[in-house]
Amino acid sequence: MGHDWRTAIDMNDWMRDQERRTTQVERRPVPGLQTPATFARTAVRVDDWDLPPATINGFFYSDPDGANSPVPGDPWVGSTVVDPAGFGVQVVWRYQGDALTQYARQFTSFTGTPSFEAWQQVFPAPLQPINVSAAGPWPTAVPGATTGTAFVVARAGIMQATFTATGYVTGGTNCTVEVYVDGVLRGQTKLSSALSVNVHMLLAPLVASISLTAGTHYVAFRSTEGASDGGDYASMSGLVIPT
User: Fold this and answer.
1) CATH class of 128-242
2) How many CA atoms lie within 13 A of 238 on its CB side?
């Protein structure tokens, strides 16, 4: 590499020459990383997150009218990373507002035309409400893993839920209903009443924290004390916090 620096005379001159050489090397472009957005001072504007240049390595942003963003009508800024095999990830942030929201999605581009998965909210983690109701009579047999009322969990997480149930109080004895999720006993709702007999009573609620995978699950109720008939009902109300 040529230069017009003066000939080094002493150690200070030599050190300055070495510093200049190091600076020049650091500024050289890196082969394979020269995409439109990699070394720009600002992100590159895109009109459609499904089309180039948003489908190659780089940093990008879109205005509220940008197509195929996670939520239409909002501005987004983010990055795309693609490996040599054609597998890629886009991670974007909704910005210019009071709170940041992050979304991500995967795509493949080895066929020439990219194929995208759906955007998923990453931050803040979305809470999934779960509301299930069931009607009696409650069986006395222990339920199996796929017995009861089905509900679907979109993303694995911890479900914080409250369970309520009614039972038929007979002869002043205790009235107890057990709660099962996927065939596993999670607790019981119970009421002891010597005053009201031969009536349906709302039992004390059960609050439980349950770890659930993504997919279909089942909640079931079992009568162990008292009685149950078609007039009984139960509910499960909760939120799944993704993990």
Assistant:
1) mainly beta
2) 26
